[in-house]
Specification:
Layout (H helix, E strand, L loop, with lengths): L4 H8 L3 E10 L4 E4 L5 E8 L2 E5 L6 E3 L4 E4 L5 E4 L7 E2 H7 L4 E4 L5 E9 L6 H4 L6 E3 L7 H16 L4 H23 L7 H5 L5 H9 L7 H8 L3 H12 L3 H19 L4 H7 L5 H12 L3 H19 L1
Parallel strand pairs: 1-9, 2-8
Antiparallel strand pairs: 1-10, 2-7, 3-6, 3-10, 4-5, 4-7, 6-11
Helix pairs in contact: 4-5, 7-8, 8-9, 10-13, 11-12
Amino acid sequence: MEGDPLGDILTLASARCVRIGTLRAGGTWALRFPPPQDIKLNAVVKGACWLAVDGERAPVRLETGDVFVVPAARPFVLASDLKARALDGLELFTKAKDNVGTVGEGHDFLAIGGHVALDPDRGDLLAEILPSLIHVGGSSPDASTIRWLINQLVTEVATNRPGAVLASKQLAQLLFVQIIRFYLAASDPLAAGWLRALNDERLAPALRDMHREPGRDWHLGELARQAGMSRSSFASRFRANAGVPPLTYLQNLRMRLAEHELRASAVSVAELARSLGYASDSAFSNAFKRRTGMAPKHYQSIVAKMDRATLRHLR
């Protein structure tokens, strides 16, 4: 790990942009989208529209330069007029050529977006702490980087230069990171979880240390000193913000790292146990089995078979 909790969690959750699409619309229109399987990210490039997410108290007006993220599995509507009959947005893009959906003449409104996929097993690290909607106004003085990324993304999609697909996905992924940063800075209070703990200036140094050296034999007093607090005050504040005690957080982080390594490499159980700070292979194996219900070697062999099956399917 890099000692950057946000970057580490995005890596562990395997957050990656898997698809880019463009919406063009004109006249009176409305599109209803089913609950997204992935995190939905959109930026308004031209025009304006309404966004209504199921469960949200009021629709949101989106203007040129605005971006929004719908992380939760909720249906939503994009519309010039929310009273208009809504077409099936999924059907529109299923039939669309080159992932460009068009409603009406398509001259009044332009949006570009992407789908951010998460690992089915570890994606909850991110999905569980994000709200049902994140909206960043394009006129915000803090959104200059977001505006630059949108412009670059539009350029890549429009010009279709060599490497445009890869560049577009990378730009959308950077846009996603910037939106989470904006959410961190603008939201108060955040829901209990690692993101809220990271946003606490007193707790953030201890959190970064645990991510930087997850295999170190951290003690509560040592982590409290990093935060400049007493043991009891630190433990209470950490639990209130992260939702779990500090050493439980560390244990959970180690198990997530173990799952990641067992999926990504042929690392031995002994090597992994040592790197994560366990005194013996058996201590690590017992901890891993309590979390996943299976021994590390068994988990690794099952994942390897799944990956081979996926490769055969792709071929």
